[in-house]
Specification:
There is one protein chain. The protein has 10 helices and 8 strands. An 8-stranded mixed beta sheet has the order 1-2-4-3-5-6-7-8, sandwiched between helices. By secondary structure, the protein is an alpha/beta fold. The chain starts with a helix and ends with a helix. The protein has helices spanning about 5-15, 25-40, 100-110, 125-140, 145, 160-175, 195-200, 210-220, 255-265, 295-310, and strands spanning about 50-60, 60-70, 80-85, 110-115, 150-160, 180-185, 245-250, 270-280. The radius of gyration is 18 Å and the shape is globular.
């Protein structure tokens, strides 16, 4: 593997001593700083027909859900993707992933419902997952009113959001509702307990330098990293889960566990497509405003959604 030349140049220019590690920030400062950084590298805000705000009932109060409607869609009702943002469970919001949601809405021709779930460390596992699960059930129950086809309900997310998607799929399968037709897993965290070769190689110098801190913030001192809802790779049985597309990056600490999860899904009889963008780093779908080649990951994701909805 060879790192994308533009990325290599950017990474080489960074001065780690000039940056305050997230471990030394307050949660509020960490969120504000990351929001500014994400805005600086985000791709274009692609046009959509409409953006509207909704409230879903959550276990601790209303949850904000931002709904994107595509332009020129010829289906009625439309397929829908419920999306959970990344950010290490401690950062991220509806705005940090606005460009990603717009891209998927625009290029997959589907509604996208972006969920503003509670964040750690104020709200530790399983609170964020319970929010994502509750919002997904609300979307399913209100699909007709939202203009969505309940038979074409997909879920997805990136990084910590990919972890949320895995957990929602497991919870939905255990309850036998709601029906989920597809899961879009963008460099998901699937094993919060294990060590891998990619973690050994890429946990320093490739922007995702604080994974142990994120996990500790999410689980807390009493958290169980072996719980399958926190580490879906450790679930004893993955059979019966929705078809999946798993996207990873070659220079990502989470690469190996993403690939392992795709392999386990496939071994369990779940139709699964796997793609590794070998020259990229963690978070690459969110830096399309900085690295033009990073858009390929979003293009793959939108294509996977279109194919899933066409089945």
């Amino acid at each position: 593997m060879k790192l994308d030349p533009a990325l290599a140049e950017i990474l080489a220019s960074l001065d780690p001593s000039a940056e305050t590690p997230v471990e030394e920030m307050t949660p509020e400062d960490a969120r504000a700083t990351w929001k500014e950084e994400m805005a600086a590298v985000a791709g274009p805000r692609l046009p959509v027909k409409s953006v509207s705000m909704h409230e879903a009932p959550g276990p601790a109060g209303p949850l904000a859900v931002r709904l994107y409607e595509p332009e020129g869609a010829d289906a009625d009702p439309l397929p829908i993707l419920v999306y959970y943002h990344g950010g290490g469970w401690i950062r991220g919001d509806l705005d940090t992933h606005d460009d990603v949601c717009r891209y998927l809405c625009h290029h997959a021709g589907c509604l996208v419902a972006s969920v503003d779930y509670r964040l750690a460390p104020e709200h530790r596992f399983p609170a964020p997952l319970e929010d994502c699960d509750a919002a997904t059930r609300w979307v399913a129950e209100n699909a007709v009113q939202l203009g969505a086809d309940p038979a074409r309900l997909a879920i997805g997310g990136d990084s910590a959001g990919g972890n949320m998607a895995c957990g929602v799929a497991l919870k939905a399968h255990a309850r036998d509702e709601p029906a989920i037709c597809f899961q879009l897993l963008i460099y998901p965290a699937t094993d919060l307990a294990g060590e891998t070769e990619s973690k050994r190689l890429y946990s320093s110098g490739y922007l995702l330098n604080s994974m142990p801190f994120y996990v500790a913030s999410y689980l807390g001192p009493e958290g169980d990293a072996s719980d399958p809802l926190a580490s879906p790779l450790l679930a004893p049985d993955l059979s019966g889960l929705p078809p999946a597309f798993v996207l990873t990056a070659g220079f990502d600490p989470l690469r190996d566990e993403g690939e392992a999860y795709a392999s386990r899904l496939e071994a369990a009889g779940v139709p699964t497509a796997y793609r590794c963008h070998e020259s990229m780093i963690h978070g690459f779908v969110s830096i399309t405003g900085l690295i033009e080649s990073a858009e390929a990951g979003l293009a793959d994701s939108a294509a996977a959604l279109r194919a899933a909805y066409a089945r």
